[in-house]
Every structure is written in C-alpha cells, then in structure tokens.
Design goal:
Layout lengths: L1 E12 L2 E12 L3 E5 L6 H8 L7 E6 L2 E2 L5 H6 L2 E4 L11 H14 L4 H7 L3 H13 L15 H13 L5 E5 L7 H16 L3 E5 L3 H7 L2 E6 L2 E6 L1 H5 L2 H7 L6
Parallel strand pairs: 3-8, 3-9, 6-7, 7-8
Antiparallel strand pairs: 1-2, 1-4, 4-5, 9-10
The structure holds adenosine-5'-diphosphate and magnesium ion.
C-alpha cells in the first residue's frame, strides 16, 4: 500500500522545467531512494512534499490526505518529518534543548517559546529527548552547544529532532553528505534501525554505497523526470541510468 502518492507534479522556475510530470508511489514501510545527477530536481521534489514549494500542477497525497495548500507544521503534525540538505538546528542551544523543542511541539500541537521553557522542567519530555539523543549516538553530548558539533553530529542531532516527533514518513536529503566513511556507516546502521521500527523513508542520496545498503526501491531522476524505477539490482545495470550519470557518480 502506498503511504505517499505523487501524481503528475510539474514545477517551473522561470524558463527552467525543474520537475516534469513526476509520478511516485512510496510503499508503506519501505526505504525508497531517489537518485540522480546534480540539479536533477531531487531537492525540489522533496520541497513539494513538505510545503516549502508549491508545485504548478499535480497532487501529493499522504495517508489519504492532500499535503498541498497546508502549512509545513500541519504536514509535520500529519506524521511527515524531514532532514534538510543543510542541517537546520538551533546553534546557540544545547543538544537537549534542540530535541525538546520538537518534542514539545509534537505533544502540544504548536510551538510556543514559553511552553518550551516549561517543557524544559518536565521530566517525561526530558527523558524522551535524552533517549532520542542516545539513540543517535549523542547521549554523552546532551549538554553541549549544538553549533559546535561536527557536520556528522549535526546531522545526527537533526535525526533525533525528527525521531522524537515519531514520524510515519521520514524524508532525508543527502543524509551522509560530507561525512567520513565511519560516520556514513553509523548513519546507515541508524537508518536501518529506524526502518525496522516501521518508519517509511524517502532518501535522496549521492553515495551509492548508502543507496545499495538501504534501498528497497530506487527512482532515478534526471532533468526533472523519472527516467527509471525499480529494485536496486535492476537499476544498477540500467542503460539510461548509466547515461544520466556519465561524467558524474558511478553506479
Ligand atoms: P538536486 O537536488 O537534484 O541537485 P534541485 O532540486 O536543487 O536539484 O534543483 C533542480 C534545478 O532547479 C536546478 O537547475 C536548480 O538550479 C533549480 N532550482 C532549484 N531551486 C530553485 C529556485 N528556488 N529558483 C530557481 N531555480 C531553482
Ligand atoms: Mg539537492
């Protein structure tokens, strides 16, 4: 069964057709990778799922409800969480506070600064935020200031901020970009654990080691259009995919 159904999405930026009649079905409980050369439209597509961009045409349906024309926080409340291409964290706050903010917003349905400050005194929320940090391997750094973290740790923190919201669908835009091989492997393990809990994931990823370690299904985007789709073993040898990647990443 599809949890996310994307039909006939078009998106134009001036003279550039960034997305061209994109259709996508994301099956519940799977890890679905979206790959493709730089500028293919991958981030634009994800932005259309979370209310950051409005497609010119088409529909995006999650869990039977349209995600178009509603606010990003409503999309979040519906059970969709996203890790951005550039980590979006509160650099001046501690790691614990960074996770408390979405934990509180999830529980109370809205973010209010006063409410969040009082949340900082609630044992149950603090424990939960601490568990999430431990889950992503940052338990020992809960009291540190987030802005000082390494890039890999910032990404892990962002994952904890997503997981505390207990999403049904997690969207990840290049989660291992800029990470060392060791951090990348830790992130693969973490994503496998998240997937085993039943969270559906859509992952945009450049690193083919990550893609082939995780993906149940792959869609290949090139120049705004889906040029191939299928099981990893079928995508690997696909000629159109090889062509789209010529001079770029290798499959
Ligand atoms: P990818 O994530 O696959 O690398 P993007 O979705 O970021 O690609 O971009 C697809 C194309 O759309 C690129 O040519 C990019 O320059 C262009 N683009 C993306 N966002 C905007 C925007 N806000 N305004 C104008 N052009 C954009
Ligand atoms: Mg991108």
């Amino acid at each position: 069964m599809s949890i996310l159904s994307v039909k006939d999405i078009n998106k134009r930026f001036g003279g550039l057709q960034a997305l061209n009649a994109v259709n996508l079905e994301i099956e519940q409980g799977t890890v679905h990778a979206i790959i493709g050369p730089n500028g293919a439209g991958k981030s634009t597509l994800l932005n259309c799922f979370v209310g950051r961009l409005e497609p010119d045409t088409g529909t995006v349906t999650f869990d039977g409800k349209s995600l178009l024309g509603i606010q990003p926080h409503e999309i979040n409340q519906a059970g969709v969480a996203r890790v951005f291409q550039t980590p979006e964290i509160f650099g001046d706050l501690t790691l614990l506070d960074n996770v408390l903010i979405p934990a509180f917003a999830k529980r109370d349905g809205a973010f209010r600064l006063n409410g969040w400050r009082s949340a900082g005194r609630e044992r149950a929320l603090i424990d939960r935020a601490g568990e999430m940090l431990a889950d992503v391997g940052l338990g020992a750094k809960a009291g540190e200031i987030a802005g000082q973290l390494s890039r890999g740790d910032k990404r892990r923190l962002e994952l904890a901020m997503c997981l505390v919201q207990e999403p049904k669908l997690l969207l990840l835009d290049e989660p291992t970009a800029g990470m060392s091989r060791g951090d990348t492997n830790n992130t693969i393990d973490l994503m496998k654990r998240i997937s085993e809990r039943g969270v559906t994931m859509v992952v945009i990823e450049h690193d083919m080691h990550v893609v082939f370690s995780l993906a149940d299904k792959i869609s290949v985007l090139a120049q705004g259009a889906v040029i191939a789709e299928g099981l990893p073993e079928n995508i690997k040898g696909n000629e159109r995919v090889q062509e789209a990647y010529l001079g770029g990443a290798h499959l």
